[in-house]
Design goal:
This protein has 335 residues and is an alpha/beta fold. 34% of the residues lie in helices and 21% in strands. It has 10 helices and 9 strands. It is globular and about 55 Å long.
Length: 335
């Protein structure tokens, strides 16, 4: 484990392009699979949108059946367009977990996150608008306003009222849902708790009829279109935020500088980027204990996720102002 305070540029984490980027590849394979089975297939892109911290990433992981997006109590954890895939019966669900739409800060990072959200909405077949059951605030309203854009005309929007288990008076949900219907003509209402398998199964049943009849885009056993390198950066970032809590500003990130496969071994070198020397000290912790714990927990989870032995090195570097620098954002892999 190494700790540095350098200013040299670092390589961005690799990202895999969607298979339909050039109209070829896996889409054709999915069409053939459907034809061979002798029946129509359904496949569609489903966006998961909402303000920060309503449980979008937790919902995505539950829908896919495996962790593909990081979760944290810290707002603004998700920063990229994360695709999760689940194939059930004749239907392939391609879920996109978007960053929480930012309404409070206008730095380059947040502008980038909001462009990602808006770009996703232009391409999808169905939108899952996620809110906390029984609650609807100004930040939720600003996200809902995106559903009024010309690109969204005619697209079904399903209201997902998450965290139902935290509602103490269930009798209040019905009038709340009625009020939500007055705000927007939602195609469906689905109150649920994302961590309950029965609720997830019910949500998938609601979404399925809205998927277009077409060939599958991915192999039947695919779970995500993201590379192992990208997932490694996300897992390290999750542990960083979980173990620093509110001490560390969200303007910190992780970049993978090296990812090598040697049989069943993955050699990974990661750099945690912070904006100030004081933030570096927070990450390192007393005697390096916090950085060591971040590395240990990240390595253990990566070994489970990749089903391989992982050798993980982590550095900490200070790069002031990176979150408001468009050039550095691109160099760090932000779209």
């Amino acid at each position: 484990m190494n700790i540095e305070n350098e200013t040299d540029p670092v390589d961005p984490a690799d990202e895999m392009l969607p298979p339909d980027e050039d109209g070829e590849g896996d889409i054709d394979a999915g069409d053939e699979a459907g034809e061979e089975a002798g029946g129509p297939r359904r496949c569609g892109l489903i966006a998961i949108v909402g303000r920060p911290n309503v449980g979008k990433s937790t919902l995505l992981n539950a829908l896919v059946g495996q962790k593909v997006s990081i979760t944290s109590r810290k707002a603004q954890t998700t920063r990229h367009r994360i695709t999760g895939i689940r194939t059930e019966g004749d239907a392939q669900f391609v879920f996109v977990d978007t960053p929480g739409f930012q309404t409070r800060h206008s730095n380059a990072l947040n502008r980038n996150l909001n462009r990602t959200v808006q770009g996703v909405l232009a391409d999808v077949d169905v939108v899952l608008f996620v809110v906390e059951a029984g609650r609807f605030g100004l930040d939720d309203a600003k996200v809902l306003a995106l559903m009024q854009s010309p690109a969204m005309q005619g697209k079904p929007v399903i209201l997902v009222a998450n965290k139902l288990d935290t509602v103490q008076r269930r009798a209040e949900i019905a009038p709340w849902l009625k009020g939500m219907q007055e705000r927007h003509p939602f195609a469906e209402f689905v109150p649920l708790t994302a961590k309950r398998p029965d609720d997830i199964k019910r949500l998938m049943g609601v979404v399925r009829p809205y998927l277009p009849e077409q060939g599958w885009w991915y192999d039947e056993d695919a779970l995500t279109d993201r590379s192992e390198r990208f997932l490694a950066s996300e897992i390290v970032r999750e542990k960083l935020f979980r173990l620093t809590g509110d001490e560390l500003p969200y303007t910190s990130t992780v970049v993978i500088e090296q990812f090598q496969e040697e049989g069943n071994l993955r050699r990974i070198a990661a750099t945690i980027i912070v904006e100030r020397d004081g933030h570096k000290g927070i990450v390192i912790g007393d005697g390096g204990e916090r950085l060591k714990r971040i590395g240990t927990e990240a390595r253990q989870e990566l070994e489970k996720l990749l089903d391989a032995k992982v050798f993980l090195e982590i550095w900490v570097k200070v790069k002031s102002g990176w979150a408001d620098d468009e050039t550095r954002l691109k160099s760090f892999g932000y779209e």
